Amino acid sequence: MLAGALVALSVFRICGDRRRLLLKQSWSAAVLDALGVELEADLTHLAPGVLLVANHVSWIDIFVINAAVPSAFASKEEVRRWPVIGWLAWKNDTVFLRRGSRGHARIVNEEIAGILAQGKVVAVFPEGTTTDGRSLLHFHAALLQPALVAGRPVLPAAISYWELNGTRSLAPRYDGDISLGQCTTAILKRRRIIARLVTTPLRGLQGEERKQVAAEAREAIALAAGLPLASNPPEIPDGLRAGLPSGVLPTGNPNRAPADSA
């Protein structure tokens, strides 16, 4: 984290977009290596300017995605005020979402569409909260709206964690009452954990509404990660109907952690 802050303070000011993305990617890979997490990524279907739609298990999901494909993320506005983490998120193209503001939701939609139009990848976690990694929750369809309006591809990405013996790992889970310290300790107790990121294409989406696209993305991720579909009819945040929910990354988890940073 200190290295990331130093780079953001110095090199980020003088280098171009491409160099910044490479720095973000190498830093994220270094964080995973320090935690003993080995990345296996299948990016066969990746293209410039896609909206990456992923399931959400842990605060390290951010680093898994960035180590594979450096991306911009959407995050609840409160994260902007967190010491160090909020500043790093702001420096790394994070789009901050304000609770209960229809006007702000439209602005955020336009901002995300603008990033996609530049050929950059934007990643969202439409479950709206983290899970234990063994099931897949309901997707908030509004998060996909910017890509559909801008005519940009939506690309599902399945994240899963595995032990060296081939069983699914629960060490990275950051749900319920699990604290950041407990989650990090559980990861460090493992000699090695395999993080798998697998992209999977959707069929043609021309003219489809966002709920249908969200449902298809959810099914594609469930298939790629080998997950059952759970149900979590959550309360709808005030700003959801305007385009985006109030908290996105990781939202429902009460723990204050870097899962909301990019």
In what order do the strands lie side by side in the largest sheet?
1-7-6-2-5-3-4
Q: Helical proportion?
A: 25-40%
Number of domains: 1
The CATH topology assignment is Glycerol-3-phosphate (1)-acyltransferase
User: How much beta, percentage-wise?
Assistant: 5-15%
Outline type: globular
Please state the second-level CATH architecture: 3-Layer(aba) Sandwich
Supply database-style keywords.
globular, 262 residues, alpha/beta, Glycerol-3-phosphate (1)-acyltransferase, disordered C terminus
Textual characterization of the structure:
The chain is α/β, with parallel strands linked by helices and 262 residues long. The chain has a single domain (36-252), classed as Glycerol-3-phosphate (1)-acyltransferase, CATH 3.40.1130. The chain is built from eight helices and seven strands, in the order ααββαβαβαβαβαβα. A seven-stranded mixed beta sheet has the order 1-7-6-2-5-3-4, with helices on both faces. Helix 2 crosses helix 3 (61-68). The protein is globular.
Quickly describe the structure.
This protein has about 260 residues and is of the alpha/beta class.
Give the SSE map.
Blueprint: H1 2-9, H2 17-35, E1 37-42, E2 51-54, H3 61-68, E3 72-76, H4 85-91, E4 95-97, H5 102-117, E5 122-124, H6 145-150, E6 154-162, H7 180-189, E7 193-199, H8 210-225
Parallel strand pairs: 1-7, 2-5, 2-6, 3-4, 3-5
Antiparallel strand pairs: 6-7
